[in-house]
C-alpha cells in the first residue's frame, strides 16, 4: 500500500514539473498556427489585388460579389480567395487564431485578425504604391469585437493600437505587406511606425 502511495506521489510531482513545459509548447504551437494563417491570408490578399487593379480590400464596406458590402474578411471569403466562403466559431479556418478561443468572450472566436487602416476604413490601399512593404504592417491579431459573434474589430491604426491583441505571451503576430510575419510588442515604438508606414 505504501509503495502505491509513493508511486502516485512521484507521478504527481513529475506531472507538476512537466506542466509548464507542456503549456509553453502548446502556446508556441498556437502561435505557429496563427503565423501560418496570416501567410495564407497574404496569399489570398495577393490574389485579390490581381483582380482589383492592384488594391487590397478596404477594412470595411467592400462591394461583395453576392451583393451588399462587407469587411475585408468577407471580400476574401465571398470572392473565394482563401478557399472558404463561410466560417464557424472555433472551427479551424485561415481567419481564426487558435489562441483567440482563450481570450475572446464566451470562448467563441471565428475571424480574429484586423487590418491596418488608412484614415478612412472604406479606403483601399495598394501594395504597389508602398515605399517600404517589408516595414509596413498589414494584418494583426485583434481584440474581440464585443458583440458575441466571435469576430474581431476588423481594423486598427496606430491611434487605436488598443484594438491589437497581444495574445501570444504578451506579443501579437503581425503580417507585413511583403508577406513575412513577426511577433511584435505593442510597447515597442517601431510597432506604431510599421502601422503608420501604410500611409506613406
Give me a quick take on this structure.
This protein has 200 residues and is an alpha+beta fold. It contains four helices and seven strands, in the order αββααβββββα.
Task: Describe it.
This protein is of the alpha+beta class. The protein has one domain. The protein has four helices and seven strands; from the N terminus they run αββααβββββα. β6 (about 170-175) and β7 (about 180-185) form a beta hairpin. The radius of gyration is 20 Å and the shape is elongated. The termini are far apart.
What is the fold's blueprint, element by element?
Layout (H helix, E strand, L loop, with lengths): L1 H50 L10 E2 L5 E2 L1 H7 L21 H4 L9 E4 L20 E5 L13 E2 L15 E5 L4 E4 L4 H8 L4
Parallel strand pairs: 3-5
Antiparallel strand pairs: 1-2, 3-4, 4-6, 6-7
Order of helices and strands, N to C? HEEHHEEEEEH
Largest sheet: number of strands, sense, barrel closure: 5 strands, mixed
Gyration radius from CA atoms, angstroms: 20 Å
Average pLDDT number: 89
| Outline type | elongated
What fraction of residues sit in β-strands?
5-15%
What is the count of helical runs? 4
Terminal-residue CA separation = 74 Å
Global structural class: alpha+beta
The number of E-state strands comes to: 7
Number of domains: 1
Q: What are the defining features of this structure?
A:
200 residues, 4 helices, single chain, alpha+beta, 7 strands, two-stranded antiparallel ribbon, five-stranded mixed sheet
Amino acid at each position: 500500500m505504501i509503495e502505491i502511495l509513493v508511486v502516485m506521489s512521484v507521478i504527481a510531482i513529475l506531472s507538476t514539473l512537466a506542466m509548464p513545459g507542456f503549456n509553453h509548447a502548446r502556446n508556441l504551437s498556437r502561435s505557429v498556427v496563427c503565423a501560418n494563417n496570416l501567410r495564407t491570408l497574404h496569399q489570398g490578399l495577393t490574389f485579390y489585388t490581381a483582380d482589383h487593379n492592384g488594391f487590397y480590400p478596404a477594412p470595411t464596406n467592400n462591394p461583395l460579389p453576392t451583393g451588399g458590402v462587407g469587411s475585408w474578411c468577407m471580400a476574401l471569403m465571398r470572392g473565394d480567395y482563401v478557399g472558404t466562403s463561410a466560417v464557424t466559431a472555433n472551427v479551424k479556418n485561415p481567419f481564426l487564431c487558435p489562441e483567440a478561443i482563450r481570450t475572446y468572450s464566451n470562448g467563441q472566436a471565428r475571424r480574429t485578425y484586423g487590418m491596418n487602416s488608412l484614415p478612412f476604413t472604406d479606403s483601399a490601399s495598394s501594395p504597389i504604391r508602398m515605399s517600404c512593404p517589408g516595414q509596413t504592417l498589414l494584418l494583426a491579431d485583434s481584440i474581440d469585437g464585443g458583440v458575441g459573434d466571435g469576430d474581431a474589430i476588423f481594423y486598427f491604426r496606430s491611434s487605436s493600437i488598443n484594438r491589437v491583441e497581444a495574445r501570444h505571451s504578451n506579443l501579437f503576430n503581425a503580417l507585413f505587406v511583403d508577406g513575412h510575419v513577426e511577433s511584435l510588442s505593442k510597447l515597442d515604438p517601431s510597432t506604431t511606425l510599421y502601422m503608420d508606414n501604410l500611409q506613406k
